[in-house]
Fold these 4 entries.
Entry 1:
Amino acid sequence: MSRVKSKDSSFVLETERLTLRRLDEPDAEFILGLLNEPSFHQYIGDRGVRTEEDARAYIRNGPMASYDRFGFGLWLVQRRDDTAPIGICGLLKRDTLPDVDVGFALRPAFWGAGYAFEAAAGVLAYGREAFDLSRVAAIVQADNQASIRLLGKLGLEFERKLDWPGDSAEIHLYARDLA
């Protein structure tokens, strides 16, 4: 991971192939598509985002509110070579978990190229550097084998099953110390 000076205040971090930046309302069209992918609904959940206005509200009330409150949140992941938006990745602080957790979701067209690992590894390093995080968690559905493999590559280990409010799927908590 490298951080570079940027005139763009939305810039967060850069990896070998990716740039992560803050989400903003002009990203609504991309977010609308991502949040309505069948895989997003299956493994993360239906956020009820059906229009671009819904997507703008999601960005305002979710990621942007998190930036204001915690200094971090979900960030837009873009390829550096063509600035194509490919997904979101970032740090979340949920009322239901004691630790900050890492979250990620990519459009299926970009799966299998190592982008999710690259983005999440950059986010973990950034969390340690910028926010002095000593531990990070992740939540995942028990049947989401691809994300579980990714969490293992990132060094997160299974800790326990969770009773997750409003979710009938079996949810697992993974975690790792960043020190």
Entry 2:
Amino acid sequence: MSNFWDMKKVEPKRSFKWLLHFNGMPQFVAKAVTKPSFQITTTQHNFLQHQFNFPGKVTWQPINITIVDPVQPDSAQSLYNILAKAGYVIPDQVNINDEGKRTISKKDMVDSLGPRIQIDQLGPGGATDVIEKWNLNNPLITSVSFGDLSYENDAILNITIGITYDWAELNDQGLGRNGRASPWTEMPDI
């Protein structure tokens, strides 16, 4: 049995090596992203003095994306355009023409964002060494915070976007690095 520090091929995943593919957004704008997570509900069944648990629905949890707001391309304007394309109409435009008589729909929101958001986690080889790829399917914007302004702060302005989605896929059909399945049972004995 060898120690992990003696194994040159063992490399931990690093939190700063990733790329976000989100509606044509330039890579340099992305600052932080929450990786997908899920919860599984349970249902209890009681029998005599015993209690048994059974798995229920899988619910994918919302993520947050933090981006910077450069002057060009204007991230705030891009997000507002996505909202408008999804069907949002400001109140004073409702009676102008038939285009004003619409509301946000799932189809229009997904069409305005694209059918998926992709998060690529990179290995030691850089952008060509994608070791983990998440696809978030049918994303919907649930919140946008355009940041805070202050005369006492010279920091870069950030925008935080809340995203929900129908389901996530890891590594396209569950393939791991080098195109083969990688369950924990294949881990080296350390």
Entry 3:
Amino acid sequence: MDPFEIRFVADVMLGHLSKWLRVMGCDTHYQPFYTSGKIEEFIVDGRLLLSRNRRMIKKYNPSLFIETDHVRTQLQELIKKGCLFPDMSRWFTRCLVCNTLLKKLPLQDAKGQIPEYVYSQNFSGICFCASCGRYFWPGSHKTRMIAQIAEWNLAGC
């Protein structure tokens, strides 16, 4: 399996990690509650289970126990275990809410859907999530996320 194509399913204890994996472009399914049999479906579909629950790890294969409870060290742990390969070209390519790949939009297609100040500043890089209908653009939130990744020493990995 191509290491850049590792797809994850994260258990209910790893919502924050899931968001950051999505920021870094990883296909990461997360929901705050899984119905009976749902995790098995994701594993059969080829996803690696990430969990902080040892019973879950014993029950499902393939799975990976996440030892730490801080996002920075969780991401470092995934890198050390060969499950995460930070590649800046993949960052900000997924919806942070629903995990869908984002589509680039011409600025004029976003008019009326994004704040006027964003439109008037003629930002490039407007993206759209076809699944949940959210719009994304390279603003201060993205800048802060990139700075956080750099502070965690993950940008150059």
Entry 4:
Amino acid sequence: MATYDLDEQERLDELKAWWKRWGNLVLTALAIIVAATAGWRWWQNHTTNQSLEAAAVYEKLTQSLSAGDAKAALQSGSLLIDQYQKTAYAPRAALLLAKLNFDSKELKSAQSQLEWVIANSKETALRDLARLRLAGVLLDEKQYDAALKQLESPRSDAFAPRFDDLKGDVLLAQGKQSEARAAYQAAFAKMQEDNPYRNIVELKLDSLGGAQ
């Protein structure tokens, strides 16, 4: 029994010595883990709530557009961009507002919305679409060099034919017919035969003297 008590005391002394040396570090590490876990859970809940709230606002936006209520649509879209810009709904709202502004001949406002999508969206397809529409706005404003700069930016293969086609429109507006033809030919070659837009590009080539 005495030997057992002695061994137990030695273990206790070793534990006290270890705790004296490492106790504060262990407590600090535990505090960090607890704080990180709590922070992560808070962030997950916050992100989920933000997405749900943004979805509700986006639904109001689309309903307003369907009802032809431009004022309400602008309010909902602006709210998404200002307060829910980290969600996937904000860039989609900006695209809708850009179209609304473009149809209303508010080209500067449309340009600003599209530039916002390019700068803030995390989705390649949305950035490509915004860049394509921005080039169209710049073409309407006769800012040809700026439009070509957008169209010469890297883009996904899915949008390549549309980029080449619009590039042809810009070059044609500049009076560069041979370069426009080359752009249309590039667009035509990249389109599948069942793509209905292919016929439009073919007509553009025909107007310049045939596809060849």
